[in-house]
Design brief:
The chain is an alpha/beta fold and 305 residues long. The protein is built from eleven helices and 13 strands. It is globular, with a radius of gyration of 21 Å. Uridine 5'-triphosphate (UTP) binds next to β1 and α5.
């Protein structure tokens, strides 16, 4: 019987250089997407999948993250005195969401190095890793599906998205073989950010993983790779190619909605899409957006003249 999965690890210690200067004094995971920081969507996703034990791997700006998941007595008592129970429940939602633990990464030496910092919390169980700047739409149940596949196959499971060939140099890329299920593939090899034109496929790894604990032994000896960082993809390649005791790697092919909020363009798209879908905002926002788009089209037409 495979060991049940109860823990989620969320690395949030990256430098977020693509989003400077907003990320100079604040982790990119705290950037608001409509009215919640990106990290709250990610913790909510973990909890929906049944993982309420959350370990965050934090970096130099960890205070804002810790505060967001903690009580703010002063704010709570002001809202209580005013009788503003609706806003009070919004404030408390992130506090009561999960059992959140923190460990520091020290130097941000790469995602593989960040995941290795989870070893003493996770110990010998399989566990999920969710990247704190990657939002999966809540209508898409990717993580639950990955947990199910892990429990059935007892291997390590990554999430794969088919990307345009022009984008493969931005991702870890998997070589795959079909399996008996339409949305599951066997991963036979992985390479981090292959140069343009040299990608073995267009299956890109996105920010959800369900890892067997053997990953820690492999990460202990993984040497710095692309960008001088200890890459999780390199350790996963060892698992995919490695001996039977590491268990192999499968991929769940994701065909839903996903936003990389650490990328400025994707961040803007996430806000527009999620705001459009919101019951409390969509009714006003969508007509405004339609008007704005037709203004742009009209401008475009006159530019073309
Ligand atoms: P990214 O690849 O987006 O790196 O990390 P980054 O350094 O944060 O961002 P840019 O490219 O400079 O803008 C993917 C995830 O891994 C975490 C990040 O916080 C993010 O959630 N990470 C990355 C760490 O926790 N530690 C690291 O050393 C590197």
């Amino acid at each position: 019987m495979p060991t049940p999965i109860t823990k989620a690890v969320i690395p949030v210690a990256g430098l977020g250089t693509r989003f400077l200067p907003a990320t100079k004094a604040m982790p990119k995971e705290m950037l608001p997407v409509v009215d919640k920081p990106a990290i709250q969507y990610v913790v909510e996703e973990a909890v929906r999948a049944g993982l309420a034990d959350v370990l965050m791997i934090t970096g130099r700006n960890k205070a804002a993250l810790e505060n967001h998941f903690d009580h703010v007595a002063e704010l709570e008592s002001v809202l209580r005195e005013k009788g503003d129970l609706e806003r009070l429940s919004k404030v408390n939602a992130s506090t009561d969401l999960a059992d959140v633990h923190y460990v520091r990464q020290g130097d941000p030496r790469g995602l593989g190095h960040a995941v290795l910092r989870a070893r003493s919390h996770v110990q010998h169980e399989p566990f999920a890793v969710l990247l704190g700047d990657d939002i999966i739409d809540e209508r898409d149940t990717l993580l639950s599906r990955m947990l199910e596949v892990q429990q059935r196959k007892n291997t390590t499971v990554v999430a794969l998205l088919e990307v345009d060939p022009s984008q493969t140099h931005l991702y870890g890329i998997a070589t795959v073989e079909d399996s008996d299920q339409d949305d599951v593939v066997k991963v036979t090899g992985l390479v981090e950010k292959p140069p343009p034109g040299e990608s073995p496929s267009n299956y890109a790894i996105i920010g959800r993983y369900v890892l067997r604990p053997e990953i820690f032994d492999i990460l202990e000896t993984t040497q710095p790779g692309k960008g001088g960082e200890i890459q999780l993809t390199d350790a996963l390649q060892e698992m995919a190619a490695g001996p039977a005791w590491v268990g192999g790697v499968h991929g769940v092919v994701f065909r839903g909605r996903r936003y990389d909020t650490g990328d400025r363009l994707d961040y803007l798209k996430a806000i527009v899409r999620l705001a459009s879908d919101r019951e409390d905002l969509g009714a006003e926002f969508v007509p405004w957006l339609r008007g704005f788009v037709s203004e742009l089209s009209a401008d475009g037409a006159s530019d073309a003249d």
